Amino acid sequence: MQVTREMFNEVMAPNYNPAGFIPVRGQGSRVWDQNGDEYIDFAGGIAVNVLGHCHPELVAALKEQGEKLWHLSNVFTNEPALRLAKKLTDATFAERVYFANSGAEANEAALKLARRYALDNFGEQKDQIISFKQGFHGRTFFTVTVGGQAAYSDGFGPKPGAVEHVDYNDLDALKAIISDRTCAVMMEPLQGEGGIISPTDEFVKGVRALCDQHNALLIFDEVQSGVGRTGELYAYMGLGVTPDILTTAKALGGGFPIGAMLTTAKIAESLKVGTHGSTYGGNPLACAVAERALDIVNTREVLDDVKRKEQVFRDGFAAINDKYHVFEEVRGKGLLLGGALNKDYQGRAREFLVAATEQKLMCLVAGANVVRFAPALNISDEDIKEGLARFERAVERVVNG
Ligand SMILES: *Cc1c(COP(=O)(O)O)cnc(C)c1O
After folding, report:
1. Which partner from 102, 129, 248, 334 sits 20 to 30 angstroms from 3, CA to CA?
2. Neighbour count for residue 79 (Cβ, 10 Å)
3. Cα-atom radius of gyration of the chain, to the nearest Å?
4. Are 380 and 28 in contact (CB under 8 A)?
5. According to the UniProt entry, which residues carry N6-(pyridoxal phosphate)lysine (predicted)?
6. Best mutation site among 131, 250, 261, 278 for ligand 1 pocket (most ligand atoms within 8 Å of CB)
7. Residue span of the structural domain in which 232 resides
8. Ligand 1 centroid to 138 CA: how many Å?
9. Does residue 236 sit in the same domain as residue 284?
10. Which residue's CA lies nearest to atom 15 of ligand 1?
């Protein structure tokens, strides 16, 4: 069958608007389309392909498990899931793991657990969930409601209740509405979709203190910031603040769908038999790939190299900006970086993305004013250099019309 981009409009629901070419093959941080054109990948499948495309060890893990056992349901447990859960608990504050298939599902589990934990331990009046404007937590109806972007949550009828939003990095605003009625505060420890916004030290520590003061659980959504992205295994490790519940997905499977919610033994008690579940969650195939990805990422060499590469990117963007003056600042941490456009280019992030695509570079946006980069953590210095050269040509095109 001859497959073309035009087919998308004929057979797919119109909720996406993909690029004009169809990628067919990837290796490391390079991708080829149907015409054999080669792209450098600074997008990483939206912070997912943490080890690039078709990493030989992930392919081996997939093949090995694919010939043993794919799926059982949670009527049975399995070895890869137990090994992965053991490694995640050994590597983090957490003592218990719930597996899901995506970030939204991990967050849905976290929010339901927070509500149930409050009900079990404090009573039904403790139901308020506080989260932050511009936050993103997924597209199920509960997670989109907790997320702080009306464009994603409105237009679907009545929303789940008792959800409040305040400005990120505004501790006083949180202080003003948090109370003993608050069951949880949910936040990204580095806002991704919302524009690559880091929390201030005072803010993130203040949020923790307010949660403690009011017996509210602190949920860190590390779906985008987790698994080495910031140069720590999880971003919380670099902030000096430990959450009560952490969600992880995206990079966890290195491109294979998986999500997880991590928490303490005490909080997990409220997820009693039958309270929550998933048919596929924790399936052996996903867990085998994720286990291998975690083994590779969670080493000092890989994590330290993320910090080194951050500087290579920052130096490259600074040199481009010296010439073309498009960014007000480059922000973010590790290999989750955002070029925030200055006042001359407000609202035009998409133009930079389109121009980059024309130069055979894949990148992302985070809102209308930020060009976002989330490459594989193991991207080679050569690919960074070539990608930056392509990005410079794209910037030149936008600037010179
Ligand atoms: C991508 C993302 C999600 C949603 O993950 P899905 O796998 O698309 O459901 C949730 N939270 C954050 C912070 C994300 O970046």
Report:
1. 102
2. 14
3. 21
4. yes
5. 250
6. 250
7. 57-297
8. 5
9. yes
10. 224
Same domain flag for 273 and 353: no
Among 150, 229, 137, residue whose Cα is nearest residue 185: 137
Same domain membership, residue 233 and residue 135:
yes
From ligand 1's centre to the CA of 104, what distance in Å? 6
Q: What confidence score (pLDDT) does residue 367 get?
A: 96
277 and 328 in a single domain? The answer is no
Pick from 244, 271, 297: which residue ends a domain?
A: 297
Q: What are the angstrom distances between the C-alpha of 111 and each of 116, 128, 147, 262, 324?
A: 9, 11, 12, 12, 44
H-helix segments, 12-130: 44-47, 56-66, 79-91, 103-121
- Pocket of ligand 1 from Cβ distances under 6 Å: 102-104, 107, 136-138, 188, 192-193, 221, 223-224, 249-250
Q: Are 43 and 137 part of one and the same domain?
A: no
Work out which ligand 1 atom sits closest to the CA atom of 46.
1
CATH number of the domain where residue 321 is located: 3.90.1150.10
Helix (H, G, I), strand (E, B) or coil at 185: strand
Kindly give the number of the ligand 1 atom that is closest to the alpha carbon of 224. 15
> Are 286 and 363 in a shared domain?
no
pTM of the predicted protein model: 0.98
Q: What is the pLDDT of residue 301?
A: 97
Same domain, 98 and 182: yes
Question: What's the confidence (pLDDT) of residue 41?
Answer: 98
Q: Whose CA is nearest to atom 6 of ligand 1?
A: 103
CATH number at residue 279: 3.40.640.10
Residue in the structure block whose two tokens are 């597209």: 139
pLDDT digits (tens, 9 = 90+) for 362-380: 999 999 999 999 999 999 9
How many domains does the structure of the chain reveal?
Answer: 2
Helix axes 284-297, 56-66, angle to 10 degrees: 150
User: What's the maximum distance between 2 C-alpha atoms anywhere in the chain?
Assistant: 62
Was 43 annotated as part of a binding site? no
Q: Tell me what pLDDT residue 304 has.
A: 97
313 is in an annotated binding site: no
Q: Which of 259, 280, 297 is the last residue of a domain?
A: 297
Rounded to the nearest 5 degrees, what angle is found at the Cα of 34, between the Cα atoms of 29 and 36?
Answer: 60
What's the CA gap between 340 and 36, in Å, rounded? 32
Low-confidence ranges of the chain (pLDDT < 50): none
What pLDDT was estimated at residue 93?
Answer: 98
